């Protein structure tokens, strides 16, 4: 019997890998442009890293983690988000002793959530993320938002806006939470069962409940922005002015709170409006207390995570066009010439030209079909009358234009044309 992949887990087959590589290259380019260095952390961590880091009361920790006992009886968990592992590595690798801020990114980071697979979010999905440790300056919040904005712009995502909010700090938030709870207690009859639970455990989460009746009930909920302490207020005002100065269009959305407990001050989401409502492509914010909660000394931080499958799903088709076929496909007019053609593709490859030929004895027509299938940019025709005159025929597959090139120095002639 054939064995199938687990539910919500997907292969990336070769035809899609090129698109992934293209996206990864652009992400790496932008990360570097903004001064971020790559970090790679293990797929599994001790469960307590997430119960302490992400928060016991969150949906992730309560319902969605892949948690197992290993053979030594330790509780271990497949990463349900990207940040906690990076914080652990920052502390364990003594990166805090280097010059701060420390700017890190991760790419293709596998993330596991045991939940019903949703569109563009599988049980195993992958994230690109950036984390900046060691500064509380709002200029870094703005910088990270700018990085995300320009990335999504490069991927040609349509109708995407940055939505920002501030959820305050340990000084001003308790007062806000108290006011919010009082408000929510007057709306109990309109709230969904999950939100009724959240009132005591995690009332901020009621604000981003996806259920319409909950959203209607909280239209007049108190706003964090009206209750920020002076420090948080100034921080948010400065963030806005940095975004304005760098031409990043944004909306203020007081309902954005993010799902995780560790956020302080800035939270933001990149949201695409579609026919079926809004989809979040990327989310993040500031988490000034997470590093100290995980055993380090006070180190303010800000970051975001971007789901790669969801990004690919939301990219317009024209931005995904595969143009990565070989530069040259060598077409053999007679089977006797195969060894000669085999030497030719080798020579092309030695000159950095991506070259391919047919190894399976196809007819000339079959070879052209194969070249098309591979997305070859040019076909080099070897044989016939041209060969007896010491020439090859070169056909540009895009324009259909044909020309003869001399066999002497053909690899240089071709290199100059590409
Ligand atoms: Zn505050
Ligand atoms: Zn609800």
Summarize the structure.
The chain has helices at 14-33, 47-53, 59-64, 83-92, 138-154, 173-185, 193-201, 204-207, 212-217, 230-245, 290-293, 308-314, 338-350, 364-373, 384-388, 410-417, and strands at residues 37-38, 44-46, 66-69, 75-78, 102-112, 124-133, 160-166, 250-252, 264-274, 277-286, 301-307, 328-332, 355-357, 378-382, 391-396, 402-406. It is of the alpha+beta class.
Oligomeric state of this protein: single chain
CATH homology superfamily name of the largest domain = Bira Bifunctional Protein, Domain 2
Shape: elongated
What is the second-level CATH architecture of the largest domain? 2-Layer Sandwich
* Number of strand segments: 16
Query: What is the residue-averaged pLDDT?
Result: 92
Q: What gap, in angstroms, lies between the N and C termini?
A: 49 Å
Question: What does this 3D model show about the protein?
Answer:
By secondary structure, this protein is α+β, with helices and mostly antiparallel strands. The protein has 2 domains: 252 residues, Bira Bifunctional Protein, Domain 2 (BirA Bifunctional Protein, domain 2, 2-Layer Sandwich); 90 residues, Rossmann fold. It is built from 16 helices and 16 strands. The strands form 3 sheets. Strands 1-5-6-11-10-9-7-8 form an 8-stranded mixed β-sheet. A 5-stranded mixed β-sheet has the order 13-12-14-15-16, with helices on both faces. Strands 2-4-3 form a 3-stranded antiparallel β-sheet. A hairpin with a 2-residue loop joins strand 9 and strand 10. The site of one zinc ion (ZN) has 8 residues, from helix 10.
């Amino acid at each position: 019997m054939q064995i199938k992949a687990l539910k919500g887990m997907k292969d990336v087959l070769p035809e899609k890998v090129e698109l992934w590589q293209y996206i990864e290259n652009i992400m790496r380019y932008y990360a570097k442009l903004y001064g971020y260095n790559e970090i790679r952390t293990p797929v599994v961590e001790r469960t307590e890293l997430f119960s302490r880091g992400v928060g016991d009361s969150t949906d992730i920790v309560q319902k969605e983690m892949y948690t197992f006992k290993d053979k030594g009886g330790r509780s271990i968990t497949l990463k349900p988000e990207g940040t906690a592992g990076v914080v652990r590595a920052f502390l364990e690798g003594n990166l805090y002793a280097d010059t701060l801020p420390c700017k890190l990114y991760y790419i293709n980071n596998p993330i596991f959530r045991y939940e019903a697979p949703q569109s563009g979010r599988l049980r195993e999905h992958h994230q690109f993320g950036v984390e900046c440790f060691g500064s509380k300056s709002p200029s870094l919040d703005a910088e990270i938002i700018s990085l995300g904005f320009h990335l999504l712009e490069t991927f040609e995502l349509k109708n995407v806006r940055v939505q920002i909010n501030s959820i305050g700090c340990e000084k001003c938030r308790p007062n806000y939470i108290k006011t919010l709870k009082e408000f929510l207690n007057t709306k109990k009859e309109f709230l969904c069962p999950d939100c009724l639970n959240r009132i005591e455990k995690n009332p901020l989460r009621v604000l981003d409940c996806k259920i319409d009746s909950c959203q209607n009930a909280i239209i007049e909920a108190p706003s964090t922005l009206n209750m920020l302490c002076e420090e948080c207020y100034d921080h948010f005002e400065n963030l806005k002015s940095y975004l304005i100065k760098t031409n990043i269009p944004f909306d203020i959305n007081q309902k954005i709170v993010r799902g995780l407990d560790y956020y302080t001050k800035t939270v933001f989401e990149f949201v695409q409006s579609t026919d079926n409502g809004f989809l979040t492509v990327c989310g993040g914010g500031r988490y000034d207390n997470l590093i100290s909660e995980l055993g380090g000394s006070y180190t303010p931080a800000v970051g975001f995570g971007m789901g790669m499958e969801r990004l690919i799903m939301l990219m317009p088709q024209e931005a995904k066009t595969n143009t990565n076929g070989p530069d040259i496909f060598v077409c053999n007019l007679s089977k006797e010439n195969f060894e000669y053609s085999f030497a030719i593709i080798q020579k092309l490859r030695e000159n950095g030209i991506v070259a391919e030929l047919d190894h399976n004895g196809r007819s000339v027509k079959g070879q052209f079909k194969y070249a098309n299938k591979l997305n070859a940019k040019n076909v080099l025709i070897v044989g016939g009358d041209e060969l007896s005159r010491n020439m090859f025929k070169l056909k540009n597959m895009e324009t259909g234009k044909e020309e003869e090139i001399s066999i002497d120095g053909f690899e240089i002639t071709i290199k100059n044309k590409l």
